[in-house]
Amino acid sequence: MTDRPLRILITGAGSGIGAGIAADLAKAGHTILATDLDGSAAEATAAAITAAGGTASAHALDVTNDTDVDRLVSELDGNVDVLVNNAGLQHVARLEDFPMEKWDQLVQVMLTGTARLTRALLPGMRERGFGRIVNIGSIHSLVASPFKSAYVAAKHGLTGFSKVLALETADTDITINTVCPTYVKTPLVEKQIADQAKTHGISEDRVVEEIMLKPMPKGVFISFEELAGICAFLVGPAARNITGQCIVVDGGWTVQ
Question: Keywords, A to Z (predicted)?
Answer without folding.
Answer: Oxidoreductase
